[in-house]
Amino acid sequence: MDFGLAGRVALVTAASRGLGFASAEALVGEGMSLVLCAREAQRLELAASELKKAAASGAQIETLACDVSDPNAASRLITLTRERFGRLDVLVNNAGGPPPGGFGRVGDADWDRSFQLTLMSVVRLVREALPLLRASGQGRIVSIIGTSVKQPIDDLVLSNSLRSAVVGLTKTLSREVAGAGITVNNVLPGIILTDRQRELRGADAARRGISFEQAIEEAGRGIPAGRVGTPADVGALVAFLASAGAGYITGTNIQVDGGLVLGML
Ligand code: NAD
What we know:
Blueprint: E1 9-12, H1 18-29, E2 33-38, H2 41-54, E3 61-65, H3 73-85, E4 90-93, H4 108-136, E5 140-144, H5 157-177, E6 183-189, H6 195-208, H7 212-221, H8 231-242, E7 253-256
Parallel strand pairs: 1-2, 1-4, 2-3, 4-5, 5-6, 6-7
Helix pairs in contact: 1-2, 1-8, 3-4, 4-5, 6-7
The protein binds nicotinamide-adenine-dinucleotide.
The site of nicotinamide-adenine-dinucleotide has 28 residues, from α1, β2 and α6.
């Protein structure tokens, strides 16, 4: 299938590793040029040089180290995109997750920080990106959130609440911009073996006195597909949603979870 993305431009946030990196890798493999951000400049540069190896010929990569919860980050990223490429076709919203905790453990400062990180980062990036996405004629907005919007995860009240706000934003926005040929969708990863997951599961395995491999196998057994996901599983969906062929899919929340979520809708 030709994804129709060659020569187009994507902005992928939080892309130095994990799901952002995998999304960038899938898009650059389709011939897109990229603007990437993450908080640490050195790690971001390493990611960019890795991605250049996977890039189709002609694809170019620009980077800007910034924190997407900073109110100025979105305008800096879109300014760079406009100046460097003069266009934007695909916006992939991604960021680190809010901290864990049940309702009783998180205070106002946690709510405020997580609101900026999870919801306002998307609001500002979309606002700044919309003029370029309208001009694209094939604009795509994809936000990486989580299955917790379908099935809340215990002890993650910030994520469950604020990612659900992204769902409300996505659905509303999708209706407003559909006439301009822009689609807006959310990707809902289940358990995906990124570096962060490796760290968390490694620490958990050590606490329980089992090996990392045993812990991963155990996690996979609880998933109908029989395995945890790979970042490339998520990247593949991001690339499809970005494609010309996905132009009639909008306002949706699509799981990449090997069948983990039990809900029917
Ligand atoms: P990760 O820790 O492996 O990678 C996170 C990336 O985001 C890094 O590049 C980091 O530099 C960057 N980053 C973090 N906060 C940032 C910020 N404020 N501004 C700019 N860059 C920032 O994480 P991951 O596993 O790839 O997860 C990505 C997102 O997907 C997170 O929100 C996570 O909660 C969510 N998610 C992950 C899984 C999973 O199983 N991996 C499942 C559901 C949801």
